[in-house]
Amino acid sequence: MNSEQLKLFVQVAEHGSLTKAALATNSAQSVVSRQLSALEKECGGRLFYRTGRGVTPTELGVKFLPRVKQLLLQLDQLSDSIRSSAEVPAGEVRLGILPALSLPLVSALTRQARERYPSIRLHLFEGSNGQLQEWIDSGRIDLALMYRYGEVNASVERVVGTAFAYLIGAAGDKVTREPTIAFGRLQRLPLVLPGVPNALRTTLDAVARREDVSLNVILEADSLPIQKRIAADGDAYAIVGRLAVTEELKLGSLQASRIIDPPIERVAILAAGAQGDYGPAVRTIAQLLAPLAIGLLEDG
Description:
Elements: H1 3-15, H2 18-24, H3 29-43, E1 48-51, E2 54-57, H4 59-84, E3 91-97, H5 99-116, E4 120-126, H6 129-138, E5 143-148, E6 157-170, E7 180-182, E8 190-193, H7 199-211, E9 216-220, H8 224-232, E10 237-241, H9 246-251, E11 254-260, E12 265-272, H10 280-299
Parallel strand pairs: 3-4, 3-5, 7-11, 8-9, 8-10
Antiparallel strand pairs: 1-2, 5-12, 6-10, 6-11, 6-12
């Protein structure tokens, strides 16, 4: 067996489909199938059950998967360490980022990385706070830029700023025309909010109970674009960070009032996985990303 076969095995396991794994690796499905069959032959057993809807790991595959992931991580770290002897950061860096932060940051980060460190390959993942936490914990990504409401783990998380929650309404809306709005004024306003479990929703519900405010959630939507569209149409109000509606505010299609008394705030963190020491490429991207994120949050 070789590292390419092992990487394909992980891709198939994560995507649950030979077709999706082939697309992710820019390979023909027949090549993925042959490589997987060869790996299964060397392992002495089936790694996946084939079904009409894709593939699922067998008992052998489930047992094999975490060891393969750890081995591939060690190989990447070894490769980075060897390259670092020439003091030139190189290799792949897997960065997870929230949709609300990706558009303002990705272009600047990509430009700086390409100009200053051309041997670093960025692989970007976009997901919710919960997804990013799961990916960083499992080792699927190396770094994550996300929000935290609770305590910060200083050993693997760096605070890069504070973001406040805003009530978002349609252009010309009377409720959101002022720069700030007291939490108590949310009483019975029609709201579109993410469903539970969601860190922002959990925080809003807790504050509402403490302040004796009744939140009128007429629609639950875990999609940020849907929340913004509902708000822009004037059917309900959304509660999001200001950065999530930067473009809409510039265009005048939405209005935003910062929630105060009490404010709803969260810290933005740059988190690294706790699996072990990362190579210079990951550390370099973290060093580039942190000041970009700090500047963005200060502006937002």
